[in-house]
Amino acid sequence: MPHFDLPLAELERYNPARVEPGNFDTFWADTLAEARQFDLDARFDEVDAGYTELITEDVTFSGFGGHPIKGWMLRPRHVVGQLPAVVSYIGYGGGRGLLSEWTGIPSAGIAHFVMDLRGQGAGHRTGETADPGVGGPHFGGFLTMGIESPADYYYRRLFTDAVRAVEAVQSHPAVDPTRVILSGGSQGGAICLAAAALSPTVIEHAPIAAIVDVPFLSHVRRATELVNTAPYSELVTYFRTRRHSEERAFETLSYFDGVNFAARATLPALFSVGLLDDICPPSTVYAAYNAYAGEKQLVVYPYNGHENGGPFQDAEHLAFFRRILGR
Is the bond preceding 200 in cis, omega lying within 30 degrees of 0? Predict the structure, then answer.
C-alpha cells in the first residue's frame, strides 16, 4: 500500500501537544504502591524443554492485586556468574507461547524473561494467565475493557504486572539486577514504554535500556482517526453504540497513552517504525519517539508495515544489546 500518513519530513518533526491528566503521576504512584503491598513471591521452576545448552524455567510472580502472573525464563547453561537479562512484553492477543519461540537471546549469553499477559494468549501465541479483574461492557479484545474508569481499565493491571515482572527478574539469583533491558513490539511496545517510565520510580536498580518497536497505545485519538484496523477498530465500534462515552474513554486512555510515558522515560532506547504500518500509524509512533525524554534512536522501514524490520530488526536488537551491555 502507499504511504498514507504524513510525509517523512513532517513525521520527523511531529510532536503534538500531550493530553495528560493532572494526577497522572499520583495515579501511577498509588497504583504501584498498592501492588507492592503483595509479596512478589517469584518462583522459578526448571522444566525440561530438551535444550541441552539452555536452562528453561516456568515462572510465577504476583502482579496487580497479587494475581499470579506466568512467564518463561531461559538462560545459557554453562555460564559462571550473574547474567544480564532482557524482559520481553508481547503483542496484542498473545501470551508467553512456547519455550521454543524464545531461544535466540539466551543463545547470545543473555537471560531472557517473557511475561505472559493476563487474559490474553488465545491469539498468535498461547497464554496461561487469567485476569480476575475483568468487568464492565467492552467490545472485542482488551482495548475497551473497563475503559470508562482509569481505576478499572485493563491496562492498569497489565502495566503494573510489567513493573512487577522487572522485580521478579531482578530477584533471580542468576541475574545481575543492574543490567536489565526491556523490550516489546506493538502492544509490547506500549507495555515497554510504561515499564521504562514507571520502573525507575519504584525499583532500586532501574532497567538500563529499552527497545520499543512500533508501539501501540500512543497518540490514541489520532490512531482512531487514521485507521480502522484492529485493535483500534475496537474503540471505533465501541463508540458507535456508546456515543456518550467517547470523552470519558479518551480521558481514561490519557493515563495509559505511550506519549505520556515516553515523556517520563529516560533509559537509552531503540525505536522502530514501518511507514506503511496501518495498525500503529507512523505519526503515532513518531509522537512517542519525539516525546521520549532519554537518549534514543529510531530505525525506519519505509516499505514495511506493522512487521517493521522483522529479522532485520532482530539483528538491530542484538547490536543494541551489545552496545548497551558493553558500556
Answer: no
For 150-179, the pLDDT digits (tens) are: 999 999 999 999 999 999 999 999 999 999
**Residues assigned a catalytic role:** 186, 277, 306
pLDDT bucket at 137, cuts 50 / 70 / 90: low
**pLDDT tens, 206-265?**
999 999 999 999 999 999 999 999 999 999 999 999 989 999 999 999 999 999 999 999
Cα separation, 59 vs 46, in Å, equals: 9
First to last CA, the chain: 41
Report the phi/psi class of residue 146: left, alpha or beta, with left for phi > 0 and alpha for psi in -120 to 50.
Answer: left
C-alpha–C-alpha distance, residues 302 and 100, integer Å: 31
Tell me the C-alpha distance between 196 and 309, whole Å: 22
What does pTM read for this prediction? 0.97
Pick the CATH number of 8-325 from 3.30.200.20, 2.30.30.30, 3.10.129.10, 3.40.50.1820: 3.40.50.1820
Beta strands 269-274 and 175-185, pairing class: unpaired
Task: Give which of 268, 44, 266 is closest to 175, Cα–Cα.
Answer: 44
Q: Three cell numbers at 191?
A: 507495555
Can you give the C-alpha Rg of the chain in angstroms?
19
32-60 mean pLDDT: 97
pLDDT of residue 136: 59
User: What does the domain layout of the chain look like in residue ranges?
Assistant: 8-325
Q: Please provide residue 74's backbone torsions phi and psi, each rounded to the nearest 5 degrees.
A: -125, 140
Residue 8's region, left for phi above 0, alpha for psi from -120 to 50, else beta, is alpha
**Alpha carbon 15 to its chain's center:** 21
